[in-house]
Amino acid sequence: MIYTMNYLSPLGNIKFASDGDSLIGLWFEGQKYHGDTIFKEMELKEDLEIFKKSKKWIDSYFNKENPSIDDIPLGPIGGEFRKDVWKILCEIPYGETISYGEIAKKIAKKRNLKSMSAQAVGGAVGHNPVSIIIPCHRVVGSNGSLTGYASGVEKKIWLLEHEGLDLNKFKK
Length: 172
Prior knowledge:
Blueprint: E1 2-9, E2 12-18, E3 23-28, H1 35-38, E4 42-44, H2 49-62, H3 80-90, E5 98-99, H4 100-110, H5 118-126, E6 139-140, H6 153-162
Helix pairs in contact: 3-4, 3-5, 4-5
Domain Methylguanine DNA methyltransferase ribonuclease-like: 6-74
Keywords: Cytoplasm, DNA damage, DNA repair, Methyltransferase, Transferase
Protein name: Methylated-DNA--protein-cysteine methyltransferase
């Protein structure tokens, strides 16, 4: 069974999802690849311990703190490639960015490949099921463009500004 909790953020409604032990989803209402499109049966159960931890984390984040991702047991569902990309996303420091191309180079190195497609990385980033906590909003185009956020570029811009980035150096 997949359990859910709703949360009202400064950017609108967010739905958390859990398998009972791990956080497997955090989606903005209406975003691409929302949990409602993935899981057919979800039960509202807001009193789970994982939801208490997740709510505390997200409250801290929206209060401009830098909560540790290590405090949340994450269990995003996806293939090996996507999980490798999401692991790299978890390593992006608060208030910093990385390009799709840089992630592709890291994946290629890990897999002992000559190169890796930045577009393939973009697909994995776009399917990140745990927004904000797995910080896919910190990924930018190689030319500094603020592209590709499943919840919309306006939310990506808000999150990056919230973390203190000067967006004048980025292409919108």
